[in-house]
TrEMBL record:
Belongs to the group II decarboxylase family. Sphingosine-1-phosphate lyase subfamily. The keyword Manganese does not apply. It comes from Actinacidiphila polyblastidii. This is Aminotransferase class V-fold PLP-dependent enzyme. The lineage of its organism: Bacteria, Bacillati, Actinomycetota, Actinomycetes, Kitasatosporales. InterPro entries: GrpII_AminoAcid_Decarb, PyrdxlP-dep_de-COase, PyrdxlP-dep_Trfase, PyrdxlP-dep_Trfase_major, PyrdxlP-dep_Trfase_small.
């Protein structure tokens, strides 16, 4: 063989490592990844990302291409999601950074405009964990609001009742990740506006899909959820989800540039260069921005409408089919492309079902019980999985796996372990207690996780939330050698 055509050993090593991962193409991984199924799109994105990989988005005066690309991406997003002439936006690294910046901006706005010094963040219990992370990082107190136990939507009157003179931001989801349902955006935004409180719409996972779906002929049933709704002050939407761009692409929209500036950081009180950051990052590659720009230009509005129609039809086919499988049900009535599947049979546990599916090459994401939401499996429908034959294959495998899971029975949890754990103080656990708790949960000392995760998840679900949150970082830390 020609020496120049031998495979690079470094790339071969990377390929070997990837072989142990979940697949990111083909539609069998029903969480974390988004696949358009369009030929040539990955190659285009990779080439665009490589062309801008060395461009530093820290200083747009040194790299004016960053401004051009970001203006294009933000403008296209604003046109889709209710932006007007004064709308401003920021390109971020993902949904978490967009949500963090929305909370930071609201905190600073509340301090400057209303004198709020002990800010609160009003959230439905179904709001994404990123908002709790933001509250911890930026010193806000979370006020959690329960949701309707049947629809899993927050009630507008409950959100209104939770608002106070200390509220910096009210958050609603479009849709919520766990159940795929839209909160009553218009009603909550109106209640917030009456109190001069900002209202953020977390449309990270569904905004691009729903925004294009309502442009489809014959489809207009989605309730208003974007910046066109009076009282909505900001909105986050990820492009690396239903815009099918590479990871590291999200947009945070604001009703105007004046509000956006509350979240910017500027510093000139040092001997170095003047610093101004619109994001939490300083130095950052412009590669993800260039890749997102190229994909958005290539697919275009008409292309995204077609993809949204495919996903919408497939989601309806999936939910209908799940309803026909003995022992399974869909939680709520999904408004977008996210489906939560629970069990109606005590012998059929969702975590065991997830193991059975994964052993057959399908990843369905386990979601532990919380509040009024039972243990369930999360499925994200993407365009690559939207072919009717592929949906039917998933349903057939799900029905067969349900039978195997029913025969296996639910994972056992030692009641004595739960009783002992309930008496522990997570804040005072030492290494020995942590090791004992993890061993009881089925996590090996070397960090190796079992092939079947149902027993581990069942134990973690049964423990008090504070203890689970104490143990989860320990589980992850054991995966790393240094």
């Amino acid at each position: 063989m020609d020496q120049d055509r031998l495979p690079d050993p470094l790339l071969a090593r990377l390929a070997a490592l990837r072989a142990a991962d979940l697949p990111v193409r083909g539609g069998r991984t029903m969480a974390y990844v988004y696949d358009s199924g369009l030929a040539g799109l990955d190659e285009l994105a990779a080439a665009a990302q490589a062309a801008f990989a060395g461009v530093n988005g820290l200083d747009m005066t040194a790299f004016p291409s960053v401004v051009t690309l970001e203006n294009d991406v933000v403008a296209q997003t604003a046109r889709l999601l209710g932006g007007g002439p004064g709308t401003a936006g920021t390109f971020t690294s993902g949904g978490t950074e967009s949500c963090l910046l929305a909370v930071l901006t609201a905190r600073e706005h509340a301090r400057a405009a209303r004198g709020v010094t002990a800010p609160e963040l009003v959230l439905p219990v179904t709001a994404h964990a990123a908002f709790h992370k933001a509250a911890r990082l930026f010193g806000l107190t979370v006020v959690s609001v329960p949701v309707d136990p049947a629809t899993f939507r927050v009630r507008a009157q409950d959100m209104a009742a939770a608002l106070s003179e200390r509220t910096a931001l009210a958050v609603v989801s479009a849709p919520s990740y766990a159940h795929g349902v839209l909160d009553p955006v218009a009603e909550v935004a109106a209640a917030a506006a009456e109190r001069d409180v900002l209202c953020h719409v977390d449309a990270c996972i569904g905004g691009w899909h729903l925004g294009h779906l309502r442009l489809a002929e014959g489809h207009g049933t989605t309730a208003p959820f974007d910046l066109s709704v009076p009282g909505v002050s900001s909105l986050s939407v990820d492009l690396h989800k239903y815009a099918y761009t590479p990871k590291g692409a999200s947009v945070l929209l604001f009703r105007d540039a004046a509000l956006r500036r509350h979240g910017w950081f500027a510093h000139a009180s040092w001997p170095g260069y003047p610093v101004v950051n619109a994001t939490l990052q300083g130095t950052k590659s412009a590669g993800p921005l260039a890749a997102a720009w190229a994909v958005l230009q290539r697919v275009g509005t008409a292309g995204y409408v077609r993809l949204a129609e495919r996903v919408h039809a497939a989601t309806a086919r999936l939910t209908d089919g799940i309803g026909r499988i003995d022992g399974l049900r869909v939680l709520g009535a999904p408004d977008a492309s996210l489906v939560a599947v629970a069990s109606t049979d005590p012998a059929l546990h969702p975590f065991v079902l997830a193991d059975e599916m994964r052993l057959r090459g399908w990843y369905l994401q386990p979601q532990p019980a919380f509040g009024g939401s039972p243990a369930n499996l999360h499925l994200t429908m993407t365009a690559a999985a939207a072919d009717p034959d592929r949906v039917d294959a998933l349903l057939a495998e799900l029905a067969a796996a349900a039978g195997r899971a029913r025969r296996a029975g639910p994972p056992g949890v030692d009641p004595a372990l739960v009783e002992l754990a309930a008496a522990l103080d997570p804040a005072t656990l030492g290494p020995a207690e942590v090791a004992l708790a993890l061993e009881a949960a089925g996590v090996a000392a070397d960090g190796a996780l079992p092939a079947r995760m149902a027993p581990v998840l069942a134990v973690l679900e049964a423990l008090p939330a504070a203890l689970t949150e104490r143990l989860l970082p320990e589980v992850v830390s054991r995966l790393y050698a240094v």
